[in-house]
Write a structure and sequence with these properties.
three-stranded antiparallel β-sheet; 332 residues; mainly alpha; 3 domains; hpI Integrase, Chain A; DNA polymerase, domain 1; 12% strand; 8 strands
Length: 332
């Protein structure tokens, strides 16, 4: 959004339904202030159009501040909602319409997905009908039982692919707390000695194409220590990983089936990292910092405890990688 300097003020203009609207600031606004201004402006403009049209407008107003994967998720929700709901004039939508739509959707989808759909519907209505009170009854949340790989699981997996750096390198990074998307976006330029910089991720955009973007939160941008053995392996291989998150999960599942290990997600390697670090007395703050967690809510639902100190990372990761690659993770 272009910010124009006008004498002692700044102006942002936006076309809505063929009419030009302006927002004026007495200082140069930040992107957040512009978005907030546009939100407040939208509340003063008479609403017209279907839910679908308003929802598309809602997504478009946020396409510069939310991730491509989030936009893709919003688009999928719109495609999944029935036409008799999305085609209805947004001013005519009632609580019964919302409840009926959610009931039908919940019949064939998980509680979590259903709640995400309701969250999107509520967000659109909050922007275009801020006075509407929504009190939908939602399906009870189902509890996902995280499977945290055991030390033996990790040892066997790393041992089985020890001669295949295509998987051996990213799996080691996984047990250091990296997400699949982060591993797949890494380049050799992100390594400086024993320091690995994590500042981007490989995700799908709204057109289902893989793109590299910045990490989702400030907490996701971080530097961690990586052991000499891993640095040497990457140098010999000449790269970190060439593939996408789907191929990485496929390789992990293939190894799990071959070894007779219960299937778990690549993301569950992060859970192993958290549990292992906690067992070694690493603080919550350091675990959050190393793993790139924004808050401790998710982290503490898996294990408990933080690791800003490179010295603490060095001891933990040296022990973890050395033990896993040699057949036994040490229990000091």
């Amino acid at each position: 959004m272009k910010v124009e300097k006008r004498k002692n003020s700044y102006r942002v203009q936006k076309m809505i339904d063929g009419k030009r609207y302006s927002i004026t600031f007495n200082h140069k606004p930040t992107e957040r202030e512009v978005m907030q201004g546009l939100l407040e402006l939208s509340k003063t403009i008479p609403v017209k159009g279907s839910f679908l049209a308003c929802a598309k407008s809602y997504v478009k107003s946020k396409d510069k501040v939310i991730s491509p994967s989030t936009i893709k998720g919003y688009t999928s929700i719109l495609n999944a909602l029935p036409n008799d709901f999305t085609g209805k004039d947004i001013l005519q939508i009632t609580q019964i319409d919302i409840q009926t739509t959610i009931n039908d959707y919940a019949a064939t989808h998980s509680p979590k997905t259903t709640r995400n759909v309701h969250g999107f519907i509520s967000a659109v209505l909050k922007q275009f009908r801020p006075d509407m009170v929504i009190y939908t009854t939602l399906p009870q949340k189902s509890v996902y039982e995280h499977y945290t790989p055991s030390e033996d699981d990790i040892r066997r997996i790393l041992d089985a692919c020890a001669d295949n750096p295509f998987y051996h390198i990213p799996f080691q990074l996984g047990i250091m707390g990296l997400r699949r998307s982060e591993v797949c976006a890494l380049t050799l330029d992100d390594i400086n000695g024993n320091t690995l910089t994590i500042n981007k991720a490989l995700v799908k955009d709204v057109n289902n194409q893989w793109i590299v973007k910045q990490t989702k939160t400030l907490a996701g941008t971080r530097e961690i220590y990586i052991p000499d053995s891993l640095v040497s392996e990457i140098e010999q291989y000449g790269k970190i990983f060439e593939g996408n998150p789907t191929s990485l999960l496929y390789g992990l599942n293939k190894l799990q089936d071959k070894l007779g290990i219960p299937r778990f997600r690549f993301h569950d390697l992060r859970h192993f990292f958290a549990s292992y670090a906690h067992s070694k007395g690493i603080s919550d703050a350091d675990i959050m910092s190393t793993g790139g967690w924004k808050s401790d809510f998710t982290m503490k639902s898996i294990y408990r405890h933080e690791m800003n100190s490179k010295a603490a990372q060095k001891q933990l990761f040296d022990d973890m990688i050395r033990g896993a690659n040699r057949g036994a993770i040490p229990n000091n």
